[in-house]
Design a protein that fits this description.
The chain has 245 residues and is of the alpha+beta class. The protein has eight helices and five strands, in the order ααββααβαββααα. Strands 2-1-5-4-3 form a five-stranded antiparallel beta sheet, with helices on both faces. The protein is elongated and about 80 Å long.
Length: 245
């Protein structure tokens, strides 16, 4: 495939991965598998791939193209140190030509060696300002990612970053919708419970809300839980009288 056709092919395939995925985690997994295969074919290397995504108010999301990426990923999570995270934080490509000779991430490099890999190349992905991500490639040969391979991987990362940015935006919209639905459910439960307290205690809505809030504080549970408990009690024993918590 020529260079002029490669760009549109990548853009279309990566967009398809976003659209065909059930969610962000599923997309990251599919992206790793595709990336490992693509870079492997274009560089002639048996490549593994991992992707790390950091978003506000969300756990760090990561995925790998195969079992060989699991141990390095576990060490990265445990230590918070790796070429992938360094690329993510610095916004620059990070190369480990030989994990046996690199002293920057000793524990991580040992995990890479145990996984049967020698070379690591980590590249940042350009996302929205409130998110960051990186993609890492692994190969079982020292010096596998030479200057030509780095150019190929950086060009790929530029395309992949757009797909990850789109997936993160879609994921954020889905999360917001879920949060709004949960908030509406909670608000409905609280309003209904307030109405019950108003009827039982012959008080105002503000006073009913204050009663529920006091019970919530005394029990050290969320107001929504108190409201739902009252609704269940009201449904099963409608003859119950004054609500005291």
């Amino acid at each position: 495939m020529t260079g002029t056709r490669l760009g549109p092919f990548l853009a279309e395939r990566l967009q398809d991965l976003v659209l065909e995925s059930a969610g962000v985690q599923d997309f990251l997994q599919e992206l790793c598998v595709f990336s490992a295969g693509f870079i492997g074919k274009t560089t002639g290397l048996p490549v593994l791939c991992t992707v790390t995504l950091v978003r506000p108010r969300r756990p760090v999301a990561s995925a790998g193209s195969g079992p060989g990426t699991r141990l390095p990923a576990e060490v990265q999570q445990a230590t918070g140190l790796s070429p992938s995270l360094a690329a993510l934080e610095s916004g620059a490509t990070v190369s480990v030509p030989d994990a046996r000779a690199d002293s920057r991430w000793p524990r991580y490099n040992r995990a890479v060696l145990r996984a049967g890999q020698l070379s690591v190349l980590a590249l940042p992905l350009q996302l929205d300002p409130d998110a960051s991500a990186s993609v890492s490639f692994f190969a079982p040969e020292a010096g596998a990612f030479d200057d030509e391979a780095i150019v190929i991987c950086e060009a790929f990362a530029a395309r992949a970053g757009k797909a990850v940015r789109l997936a993160a935006r879609i994921g954020a919209s889905r999360d917001l919708n879920d949060d709004l639905l949960e908030a509406l459910k909670s608000r409905t439960s609280i309003n209904l419970a307030s109405g019950i307290v108003m009827g039982q205690s012959r008080c105002s809505q503000a006073e009913a809300f204050a009663i529920l809030g006091k019970v919530s504080s005394n029990r050290n549970v969320k107001l929504r839980v108190v409201a739902e408990d009252l609704l269940r009690k009201f449904d099963t024993t409608p003859e119950a009288t004054h609500f005291t918590g």
